[in-house]
């Protein structure tokens, strides 16, 4: 798991939201895909489509990219083009403000922050636990890498899981 690449993705999404982009792309990796699917599951981004270096066609009515299953004439995945694969993300806006808040990394490549269930309960209540600040506002989210995948902090407490704290959305 490369936290350096994940920090690049976080800063890229921050910049894409500030620039009011409707569609942006990030490098394709398992970690990025799982995080983006967790963001989509929580309603912070509209779509996640795996594709090539060119953007996927946009649905004429919805304005979101079509899923790969619905698109014809896709270049097949080979060993020579695997490095150029991208994840295309549809960003959401509400009243001219981005739904996706500011992303910031909690764990760094030099200092990985793990937390157990008891510490995670304190964080959700708004208290500080070790080096992780509490969640204070309703729109704030904290994403962890656990044995069951990448989950939001509240889901981790429900499932009684701890893990590596990846990033925070304010």
From TrEMBL:
It is found in: Mitochondrion. Gene3D superfamilies: 3.30.1370.30, 3.30.1490.10. InterPro entries: Ribosomal_uS8 (IPR000630), Ribosomal_uS8_sf (IPR035987). Its main location: mitochondrion. GO terms for cellular component: mitochondrion; ribonucleoprotein complex; ribosome. GO terms for molecular function: structural constituent of ribosome. Pfam families: Ribosomal_S8 (PF00410). One of its GO terms (biological process) is translation. The keyword Ribonucleoprotein applies. Keywords: Mitochondrion, Ribonucleoprotein, Ribosomal protein. The keyword Ribonucleoprotein applies. Belongs to the universal ribosomal protein uS8 family. Component of the mitochondrial ribosome (mitoribosome), a dedicated translation machinery responsible for the synthesis of mitochondrial genome-encoded proteins, including at least some of the essential transmembrane subunits of the mitochondrial respiratory chain. The mitoribosomes are attached to the mitochondrial inner membrane and translation products are cotranslationally integrated into the membrane. This is Small ribosomal subunit protein uS8m. It comes from Aspergillus carbonarius (strain ITEM 5010). The lineage of its organism: Eukaryota, Fungi, Dikarya, Ascomycota, Pezizomycotina.
């Amino acid at each position: 798991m490369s936290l350096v690449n994940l920090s690049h993705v976080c800063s890229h999404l921050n910049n894409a939201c500030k620039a009011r982009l409707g569609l942006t792309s990030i490098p394709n990796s398992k970690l990025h895909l799982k995080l983006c699917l967790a963001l989509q599951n929580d309603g912070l981004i509209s779509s996640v489509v795996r594709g090539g270096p060119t953007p996927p066609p946009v649905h004429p009515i919805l304005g979101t990219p079509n899923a790969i299953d619905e698109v014809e004439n896709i270049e097949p995945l080979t060993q020579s083009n695997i490095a150029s694969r991208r994840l295309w993300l549809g960003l959401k806006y509400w009243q001219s403000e981005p739904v996706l808040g500011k992303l910031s990394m909690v764990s760094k490549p030099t200092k990985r922050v793990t937390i157990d269930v008891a510490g995670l309960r304190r964080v959700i209540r708004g208290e500080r636990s070790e080096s992780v600040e509490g969640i204070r506002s309703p729109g704030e989210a904290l994403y962890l890498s656990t044995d069951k995948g990448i989950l939001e902090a509240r889901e981790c407490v429900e499932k009684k899981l701890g893990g590596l704290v990846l990033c925070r959305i304010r």
